Amino acid sequence: MATKQPTAKLEPRIPKPAMGSVTPSARKWLGGPKRSAPGADYAAHRQSGRLWTQHLRATLLKLGFRQCYTDSCIYVRGSGADLTLVGVYVDDLLVTGASEAKVDKFYTDMSVLDVKNLGMVSKFLGMAISYDEERWYRLEQRQTIEELQQRFGLAEANPVRAPVSDDQDGEDDGELLPNSGGGAPANPTVRLFQSLVGSLLWVARRTRLDIALAVHRVTRTSHAPREADWRRAKRIARYLNGIIDLKLCLEGARATPIETGVRIEGYSDADYAADREDRTSVSGGMLYMDDMILGWFCKKQTSVAPSTKEAEFVAW
């Protein structure tokens, strides 16, 4: 999508000093809000991201869309047979509707922003998306994982059958990783470790819930990682290398919610006293709609549970 920058007020980035603390010739550079030049490119201004978000939101609201309360990146227009949904990521939009006519109407309405229709989605935010006549959608991140393996020198590493190992819990943690240095996989630094963990976290949150717990464990040491933490993070990447083609399968609805209703189910569990330092537990859970997974989570509990029963209650 490409568009020109609208006229918008911009907040000053430098606070005004007290009178008399600057010379009169310098005071003109510390003025109040200014307007962006109409027709200027968004990329030419520091607040381009904010301007674009405000402009897109105003445009969608004017077209009758409502912004979702729980996720501000989702916009909804109509309901039932008139439903249109728009997912926004900066200037990439994912559009779906109750019918093809609703999607076509969206592009007609959005002609004011010079929107380009790229057709049926095949890739979005690093996820490859495929679908078949039986209404199955399949999401995978093979390319993202391959790039991760190349970037961290793990493309030729031997795969492992599990992202975590019981032997790792009892091993010596080793020395703290240095804050500076070469930054190569053979000589990892804190920055390199954080980069690897961030890449793994992106994969875990999009399509690979099978590594959610393992990634959660290594993220807890990102502030002060040790040599053992680096080995644990590499093991997760090696696990992905072994089953790189695993896909998240989503089945499309075979009947409208009006006919059958919507069944929402949630499942949760807890790893009691999982943290060896403070004995807090770890919660995990999944949310389904009509047997189709909607999301999952894995996070550390904020208080110490005195029993497995209470840990599972907190997770629920």
From TrEMBL:
Protein name: Unnamed protein product
Annotated stretches, region: Disordered: 1-37, 161-183
Organism of origin: Phytophthora fragariaefolia
Coiled-coil ranges (or none): none
Domain of life the protein comes from: Eukaryota
Domain Reverse transcriptase Ty1/copia-type: from-to ranges: 46-164
A Pfam family reported for this protein in Swiss-Prot or TrEMBL: RVT_2
Comp. bias (Acidic residues): 166-175
PANTHER family per the UniProt record, alphabetical: GAG-POL-RELATED RETROTRANSPOSON, INTEGRASE CATALYTIC DOMAIN-CONTAINING PROTEIN
